[in-house]
Amino acid sequence: MTLSVPVPLADFWDRVPLAQGSTFELDEAMEIDRTAGGIVLPAAIGARLWSGEVRFDVSFRAERARPAAILTALRRPGMPFFAYDRRRPYPLADPDGSALGAATPVLAGIDSADRSRVALSGLPAGYVLSAGDLVGWSYGSAPVRYTLHELAEDATADGAGGTGDVSIAPFWPTGTASGLAVTLIRPAIVAVYDPGTFQPGQGRAGGMETGRGFRFRQTLEY
């Protein structure tokens, strides 16, 4: 069977026996200069993207064999995979996603003058979103791109299931539009292996292994 790309969550990311110390964070994408008078001059140097480090936990061969083999395949150009922050798969106030149920939230509005704010609709009445929750959506075609954002403030859906404007980071990308479906449960990015970061596993007694790991970074190419 041909490996689908981007590699689905169920085929790779969800199978990794994740260890403590793994990370999933938004980069800064900025530089700082200064004047002779001591004025600091920050400047953006590109889109802010998510990146992180994956460490395999101590595991038996049966646990690690498939994700380890797929990782080997991912360590070449043109092999993107889906990934999400496994520390934050659900909103804080809905730790198993049951409160969201079958609701289908969408972007109710975007502010072209302030790309750090969005409004949502289609939520259950009273649904609570907390600062630090992650929201994602896809946009565009050929390719479809996936964007991920962290809420910078709390929000509660009104009786009609809508929120007011909510602050997010990073800025929403060009191509975002009202009406796009929003993902609150395991919102994912498309990522690629960061070359030169692979760490081989170290064998232990009984067929166990520890130490395997790599770094990844988001891409908007696929």
How would you characterize this protein structure?
By secondary structure, this protein is mainly beta. It folds into two domains: about 1-85 and about 190-220, Phosphorylase Kinase, domain 1, CATH 3.30.200; about 90-185, Elongation Factor Tu (Ef-tu), domain 3 (Beta Barrel). The chain has one helix and 16 strands. The protein has one helix at about 60-75; strands at about 25, 30-35, 40-45, 50-55, 80-85, 105-110, 115-120, 130, 135-140, 145-150, 155, 165-170, 190-195, 200-205, 210, 215-220. The strands form five sheets. It has a five-stranded antiparallel beta sheet, with no helix packed on it. A hairpin with a 5-residue loop joins strand 14 and strand 15. The radius of gyration is 19 Å and the shape is globular. The model has no long low-confidence stretch (mean pLDDT about 95).
In short:
The chain has 222 residues and is mainly β. The protein is built from one helix and 16 strands.
Q: In one word, what is the shape?
A: globular
Number of helices: 1
Secondary-structure element pattern, one letter each: EEEEHEEEEEEEEEEEE
DSSP strand tally: 16
The CATH level-2 architecture of the largest domain is identified as 2-Layer Sandwich
Into which percent range does the helicity of residues fall? under 10%
CATH topology of the largest domain: Phosphorylase Kinase, domain 1
Task: Tell me the structural class.
Answer: mainly beta
Gyration radius over CA: 19 Å
The parts where pLDDT drops under 50 for at least 5 residues are none
Distance between the termini: 21 Å
Spatial ordering of strands, largest sheet: 1-4-16-13-5
